[in-house]
């Protein structure tokens, strides 16, 4: 039986649901998803300066492109309390 990593399965599900573009900010915690998106192909990435901007991009895409899904990809944030 063929096996795949969980993150590859997640990307495959996104593709099956019709996602062909994602907006986001790469970072250490989410890099495996970007690697899976590159390996499997079919999902274009638009780089944003911050996650909030990416979320607005994804919402705008959803509202303007009929029958399309806007996806926002974020990464982990390190919070330091002083």
UniProtKB/TrEMBL annotation:
Domain annotation Thiamine pyrophosphate enzyme N-terminal TPP-binding: ranges: 4-76
Key word Ligase present: yes
Lyase in keyword set: yes
Gene3D superfamilies noted in UniProt: 3.40.50.970
Source taxon at top rank: Bacteria
Pfam families membership: TPP_enzyme_N
GO cellular component entries: acetolactate synthase complex
EC number: 4.1.1.47
GO molecular function: flavin adenine dinucleotide binding; ligase activity; tartronate-semialdehyde synthase activity; thiamine pyrophosphate binding
Class of enzymatic activity (EC top level): lyase
UniProt KW keywords: Ligase, Lyase
GO terms, biological process: isoleucine biosynthetic process; L-valine biosynthetic process
Family assignment from sequence similarity: Belongs to the TPP enzyme family.
Name of the protein this chain belongs to: Glyoxylate carboligase
């Amino acid at each position: 039986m063929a096996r795949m990593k969980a993150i590859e399965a997640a990307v495959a599900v996104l593709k099956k649901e019709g996602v062909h573009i994602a907006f986001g900010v790469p970072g250490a915690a989410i890099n495996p998803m970007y690697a899976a998106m590159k390996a499997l192909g079919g999902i274009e990435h638009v780089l944003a300066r911050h996650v909030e901007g990416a979320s607005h991009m994804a919402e705008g895409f959803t509202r303007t492109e009929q029958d399309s899904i806007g996806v926002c990809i974020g990464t982990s944030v390190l919070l330091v309390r002083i």
